[in-house]
Amino acid sequence: MDTGNSTGIRVASVDDIPEGEGIAISSDITGTEDDIAILRDDDGTCWALNDTCTHETASLAEGWVEDGDVECPLHSSRFNLKTGKVDGLPATRDTVPHRVEVRDGEVYLFPNERP
Amino acid sequence: MTVSSVLVVGGGIAGVSTVAELRKNGFVGELTLLSADAVPYDRPPLSKDYLAGARDLESIALQPAEWYADQRVSLVGDTVAVAMRPDAGEVELADGQVLTADRIVLATGGRAVLPAIAQVRRDVPAALPTGKRRERPVVSPIHVLREVSDADRLRTSLVPGARLLIVGGGLIGAEVASTARGLGVEVVLVDPLAPPLAAAVGIEVATWLHGLHADHGVEALTTTVETLLESPTGIAAQLKGEPDSREFDAVLLAVGLVPEAGLAEAAGLETSRGILVDADQTTSHPSVLAVGDCSRLRDHHRAEHWEAAQLDGARAAATILGSPPPPATAPWWWSDRYGLHVEGVGEMRSPDAEHQTVVRGVVGEPPFAVFTLRGERLLGAVAVDDANAAKAARRLIDRAADVRASDLADPTQSLRTLLRR
Ligand SMILES: Cc1cc2nc3c(=O)[nH]c(=O)nc-3n(C[C@H](O)[C@H](O)[C@H](O)COP(=O)(O)OP(=O)(O)OC[C@H]3O[C@@H](n4cnc5c(N)ncnc54)[C@H](O)[C@@H]3O)c2cc1C
Ligand code: FES
Question: Which of A62, A69, A77, A89 to mutate for ligand 2's pocket (most ligand atoms within 8 Å of CB)?
């Protein structure tokens, strides 16, 4: 994995992430406080959010990705993939979005940059 | 008539969801939320992390404290309604204050059933005849679990080596057994059903779930409690079929819920095992709606799950706003025990001429899921540590999709792809 903010961190190949699913990237690699979930919407686009749900401790990478949202695997709060905004209890706090870019089939993550 | 003020009685998930959905969908009028607690909190953690001491009251709040002001919701906390006069749109509080509104939404939840076991008397403060009746067992080491104060009280008994008797092996009894074991408590759990929850999750999963108690050092007995008597060292419980009574330091009664319908009943609204409502949450009085565990949809069972209460709130808000209700969806619930996450969707049926049971994976080896199929229609699913199987099942049910048993049963076949057909 290469690092460096100008090119982003290469974290996965797009083909490794089925549409509608996600993978978690460890904070050791991202250098962020929380792990980061790379989430692939059902239209194939990739997004990144802090991995830990703001309600309890679920990993959003294990959530259900659909129509621009990820639905938490534990209690089904939904977070907007682009803005991190929460829609629906029990979570009440928004999460943090990060920018991702897909080049030549590879996913590059720009931690703490706005999408 | 446009509605310019709404008063919600009860600050559980149903009441909070009602006010949140009203504001979110453009209600600009006056919004008051009456809560028996200072700040509304969420109940599911009361048998899980909160009871274990891993979460505090602030972290289980339904909304952050500043949310109410942000949303222009006047939160009237720490007080209960004692009477309602629906024709006048009035609700009277315990301190004599009277609030009025164009619409009243009852979201008063329920209280724990107190079974008729000797020494479990009902403690009904005379000051609250028809409102919130805080019935509590009066023998102190006997507990129920519905409110945060119940959880605080129960937690003081959950010390390593303490002997806890849990009466009722349903969702809450089982969750407390699991939490108590985690705290080093000796647990005996009794239920007359072998196994409990068969109707909710199917016999196979129910048997396995119930068996987890023994695997985790809980003595799970198929019997009932005949008497509970104070003894010098705690509580003596006589279990049916045993020659001698057993000694416990604490007893939890977890045998079900009585809907809190007193305000509605006293005001002459139709009630029968809950405040009766139509599909739009309206009661028999045109300016009163009811949501959550206190209500019952005519000709249906009460759901008594978190999301059902939340969706009731969303439907009530739509009714008040005159907007279309949120789309109907199969009921969904979750529960946690011994580190496993269990979810149920729709309705499970025993296999018969019409209904087929399909297992994905192996029952007892999570992740796995079990489905009820009628022909090619999915009716229900139970999933253990497989949230996405439950989410897929829910969508398949909601869309009345055609599904084949062989596809459901094949763990290499993504359930999502079935939705794309
Ligand atoms: C310990 C426990 C664990 C649970 N775990 C789960 C779970 O894991 N998954 C799941 O799906 N469901 C779970 N549930 C069920 C879920 O929490 C309930 O279905 C849900 O709380 C119902 O919401 P409600 O708002 O209708 O009622 P409640 O949450 O009971 O809220 C009603 C509120 O109204 C107040 N009130 C009553 N009368 C008055 C009055 N006269 N004036 C003012 N206030 C009044 C009450 O004090 C209460 O705060 C659990 C329930 C409990 C008790
Ligand atoms: S942990 Fe995500 S909604 Fe509860």
Answer: A77
Residue range B5-109+260-321 forms a domain whose CATH class is alpha beta
pLDDT-derived band at A99, boundaries 50, 70, 90: very high
- Note the ipTM here: 0.93
The partner residue sitting opposite A20, judged by closest CB among B62, B310, B416, is B416
C-alpha–C-alpha distance, residues B133 and B125, integer Å: 7
Q: Tell me whether A93 touches chain B (CB under 8 Å).
A: yes
The two structure tokens encoding residue B297: 């949809």
pLDDT tens digits for range A65-96 = 999 999 999 999 999 999 999 998 999 999 99
Instruction: Give the ligand whose atoms come closest to the C-alpha of residue A76.
Output: 2
Closest Cα in chain B to A72:
B387
**Measured between CB atoms, which of A64, A75, A92 is closest to B388?**
A64
Q: Counting beta carbons within 10 angstroms of the beta carbon of residue A43, is it exposed (0 to 12), middle (13 to 18) or buried (19 or more)?
A: exposed
Between 3.30.2280.10, 3.30.390.30, 3.30.70.980, 3.40.50.150, what CATH number should domain B339-418 receive? 3.30.390.30
Compute and round to an integer the Cα radius of gyration of chain B. 22
In this complex, which of A71, A74, A92 lies closest to B341 when CB atoms are compared?
Answer: A74
Nearest residue on chain B to A77, alpha-carbon basis: B307
Domain residue limits, chain A: 9-110
Name residues contacting ligand 1 (CB within 6 A): B 9-15, 34, 36-37, 43-44, 46-47, 80-81, 107-110, 131-132, 145-146, 172, 260, 263, 292-293, 304-307, 309, 333-335
One of 3.30.70.20, 1.10.10.2840, 3.90.380.10, 2.102.10.10 is the CATH number of A9-110, namely 2.102.10.10
B102 CB near a chain A CB, below 8 Å? no
| Ordered DSSP codes for B48-114 | THHHHTSS-TGGGBSS-TTHHHHTTEEEE-S--EEEEEGGGTEEEETTS-EEE-SEEEE---EEE--
Query: Can you give the residue ranges of every domain in chain B?
Result: 5-109+260-321, 114-256, 339-418
Tell me the torsion sign for CA atoms B415, B419, B420, B421.
positive
Q: How far apart are CA B109 and CA B12, in angstroms?
A: 7
For the stretch B151-206, pLDDT in tens is: 999 999 999 999 999 999 999 999 999 999 999 999 999 999 999 999 999 999 99
